[in-house]
Amino acid sequence: MTDTLEPPDEHLVSLSKDGNLAAFNSLVDRYQSLVFTLCYRLIGERTAAEDAAQEAFLSAYRALHQFKGGSFRSWLLRIAANAARDELRRRMRRIPARSLSAEDSDDSALDPPDPAADPAAAFDDRSLGPALEAALRSLPPDQREVLLLADVHGFQYEEIAAATGVAMGTVKSRLFRARERLRRALERRPELFTRSGRLHDRGER
């Protein structure tokens, strides 16, 4: 019987560091959908997300010598988040700047949100579909970024701080505000929760 197990990331990374392009292409094939999805949800525009994803893989290949072990997936997604952030900055420079409201300012540290009340559990419910995507797009980019990294891709606070280049307290603050905004946006569509049974399970406030 032929062994169909795919080689682990560590093996492909090691070969890639030795100049094996086929090995790196295998990593690209393995993670291109994940990287594109993250970039698309952060940017909200397909062509720009494709550009950011391509730049992420190019940056990862150029920086392979800096990868010292651990989770290659997490390392790659940090690079992808940076690439998406750079693309967002380029896009924002082409549109008029808007004033930040007091609610947008999130430099103060807050306690971590209660996971039990986490509205991002809706990510597991495909029936929310377009409404959830629209709610995500309504978030400020920095809040959307930490929400996706934490609640979709499972990053720890330390990883998010490293990926975004901000302090731990700011990560917690942005995540708290993002979850609250997402919860409020979804609560404006109670019929979605009624259809999925989630509203009755949690109880109306």
TrEMBL record:
Keyword Transcription regulation applies: yes
SMART domains from the UniProt entry: HTH_LUXR (SM00421)
Keywords for this protein: DNA-binding, Sigma factor, Transcription, Transcription regulation
Pfam families named among the record's database cross-references: Sigma70_r2, Sigma70_r4_2
Positions of region (Disordered): 99-123
Transmembrane intervals: none
HTH luxR-type domain mapped to chain residues: 136-196
Keyword DNA repair appears in the UniProt entry: no
Family: Belongs to the sigma-70 factor family. ECF subfamily.
Designated name of the protein: Sigma-70 family RNA polymerase sigma factor
Provenance organism: Tepidiforma bonchosmolovskayae
Phylogenetic classification of the source organism: Bacteria, Bacillati, Chloroflexota, Tepidiformia, Tepidiformales
